[in-house]
Every structure is written in structure tokens, then in C-alpha cells.
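Sample entry follows:

:::
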Amino acid sequence: MSALYVHIPFCQHICTYCDFCKVFYNEKWAWQYLDALAFEIQQKQLSHDYKTIYIGGGTPTALTYEQLQYLFELLKPYAHHCQEWSMEINPETMNHEKLELCVQNGVNRLSIGVQTFHNHLLKKIGRVHTCEQVKSFILEAQNKGVQDINIDLMYGLPEQTIQDVCEDIDELVKLKVGHVSYYSLILEDHTILKNEHYQPLNDEEDAKIYALIRERLQQHGYHQYEVSNFYAYKPSLHNLVYWHYEDYDGIGVSAHSLKNGHRYENTKSLTRYLEHHYLENDIILTESDRLFEKIMMGLRLNEGISISHINQLYGIDFQKRYHHVIEKYQKMNLLEIENGYLKTTSLGINYLNSILIDFLDDEQT
């Protein structure tokens, strides 16, 4: 087991597009939650050799200094060999003391929920930080020696223009941020923007802006290695565990684990989690499930899927088994095989969902 995900569900406010498992911060609940995390850790008898730890949310930095300190104490026994310790942060919930605490306890990668560098757009999506806070925090983190910084950016926001997107990329470059995760706004049910009937980009508009983002980032030295992820410094080791479809542990409300052909799903109910009823589902994955999920995750990567590796893992002739799908999309210039890897072309990445549906249909026939 090489990766551990830790979910902290608390937020100081709820963004208009967010559908992640989250609740408003409450100090008493937060302490109870950390005690429940300790219980889950003890019950699961976690590994002691995680190469990556990722604390996500929610907003982990919504916790107080003392609560963060307690969280680090809980996780410290499992971080002896940790190469990448990531933490999601929102600028408005950080201060000098919390940043110092993170660095002292081994956090060496920060993922910042920026979304855009335009204050008027931030207000549209319910963010309460300002672009000035972001810039100030990034410079402070870099001065503290944290060079591995990711920022999340979004396109398709209400009233956002193409010029706004270009200016966001310019700011990213000026700040010398080494990694960016760039997402199109997708509205899930029960989000505020969905309830307000906001109309996101259509497929044609989305593809146009996505192509622009890829081109401009490439011009500035960013390498795309996954559908939504680009790096100038280095890729996310933790997220590569997911995309390579390797086993991982997840703890906390709504967290998932993948272990030995099982997907373990934790409860989404904070009440049940605080009562120490953390496990909701134990799903036994069939070989077909695992094979399709391996394809689904692998084709998100620019490198694609190692054909020899997938043959070895599943005892199959991958090209023979899926020759209908592969040949169909090769003729359309959407898939290609290069150096033993099946991958999407620069055009094919826009049609990934359709390609995956065909792989799934082929698997079920």
C-alpha cells in the first residue's frame, strides 16, 4: 500500500458549485471527528510505509491550529517514508502559524483552491478569498521552501470571458506555480448554481476553451500528463496512484479505499461517522470491473496504458480482446499505439467519454 487519503469535511462556507462531502465548521464536531479518525485508523491497522499522504476536503485548513496539530500527530506514525505529503488549503483559512505547522510536520506539497484570479468571478461562485490573498500566500509558502504547489483553476464560470481565462494563465506563470489542475465547471445536482439554473458551457464552447488552455500552458513550459493536470515542476505522485489504478487507503467520512479487488466506501453521514460506523459498503470488484476501471483511469493519462502491463495483470491479449474499439478509434485518429502504449491523440482526449463507453459496451458483450 503506497497512498493514504484523509478527508476533512469541514468548510467555513459552501461554494455555489461544490458537491463534495462537506459541512459547516463546528469546533465541537471537529474535535469529535478527529477522535473518530483515530478510531478508524486503529480499527484498520493502517500501513506504516505510505509514500504519499493527501489531506483533502472540504477545507482541511478550516481546522484550528490545535486541531491541525492533533491531526498531524495521528498521521505521523504512517509518514516515515512519505515522499509527497499534500494538503488542500483555502487562502482565507490559512495564516503564518498554520503554514509553519504544516511545513514542520512534513507537508511538502500544497494544493490551493484558487479557481480564478478575478475577484468579481470569485464572488459569482461563492468564494470568499481574494486574488491578492492567493498571491501573498503563494509567495510566503515559496519563501518557506514549499516549491511543490498546485493551484486549481476553473473555466466556464458565470460571466467568465476567454480573456479572463488567458489572464488566469498569465498570473499562474508570473507566480511560478509548478502544477495546475484545470477543470471545466460541471454542475451536479443539489449545488447552488444548479438550483439557480445556471447554464454551463456547451460541448463546442468547452472544447474550444480547453484547447486554448492546453496550448497556452504548453507555450509556457507546462507538460500535460492527465486530462486536467499540467506540471512545470513535477506531477502529483499521489494522484498518479489513482490513475495507475493502484491500491490505496482512504479514511474519513465519504472516503474510499481500493484494496485487493475490493472498493471500500465510507459513510457520507457525519452523524454515523462520529458514532464510529465508518464503513458503508464493501464492493467486490469482478475482473471485468477491474479491467474496465484500469482502462478508464489509464486513458486519462497522456502516456496511456501499457499494453504489456495490462496483459500481464489480467492474463489477456488486450489488443485482440478490444480490437473492434481500438481499430474504430484509430481510424478516426482518436486513439493511437505508440511505444507499446495505447493512448488518446490530442484530438481524442476531447472524446474520452465516448471512447470509454465503447470499451464498456465491448466488455459487456
